[in-house]
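Rotation project, supervised by the postdoc (A.L.). Task for the rotation student: set up a whole-complex structure prediction and record inputs and outputs verbatim in this book. Inputs entered:
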Amino acid sequence: MFRKVLFPTDFSEFANKALEYVKKLKEAGTEEVVVLHVVEQSYFDAYEEAFAWAGKNIEEETEKLDEKLVEKAKKDMEKIVSQLEGFRVKEVVKIGNPWEEILKVAESEDVSLIVMGSHGCGRLGCTLEKLIGSTAENVVRHAKKPVLVVR
Ligand SMILES: Nc1ncnc2c1ncn2[C@@H]1O[C@H](COP(=O)(O)OP(=O)(O)O)[C@@H](O)[C@H]1O
Ligand SMILES: [Mg+2]
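Outputs recorded:
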């Protein structure tokens, strides 16, 4: 039933909790896991202003930052993949708006389930103040696939 699972992660402790459930889904017949990290486009927008203010070439600097963040994400992803022994694993790194990219990948990979944390950690740190994080909320709101939100 849940043959192929999408696990979107911001590498936070909340997402790591969800990862524990992904592992358990082996017993429910899950064979394949797509691990997705989205480098937030909004970070770039903020940095662009700083680059402009510092009189730097925005395109050049953004490209450098872009490469660095994607590289870092790929490294962080290795730690996740090493925990997914026994599954077929696909790693995906995108740049954009997290919830939109999560929905796009859910469709293009035709996954049977999305497993994610209820909260996350972003540029402004981790917070549990809201009932549910904004990425999780938008995924639940718009997804055509079932979503397992791990609190
Ligand atoms: N940039 C991202 N890339 C992939 N998955 C993400 C990203 N940001 C959040 N997620 C997923 O969404 C879950 C909920 O995070 P989010 O809704 O962003 O909470 P918050 O608003 O507290 O940051 C995370 O545990 C993670 O599974
Ligand atoms: Mg977030």
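Student's summary: Residues 10, 120, 122, 133, 135 surround magnesium ion (ligand 2) (CB under 6 Å).
Supervisor addendum: Residues 4-40+79-150 form a domain with the Rossmann fold fold (CATH 3.40.50.620).
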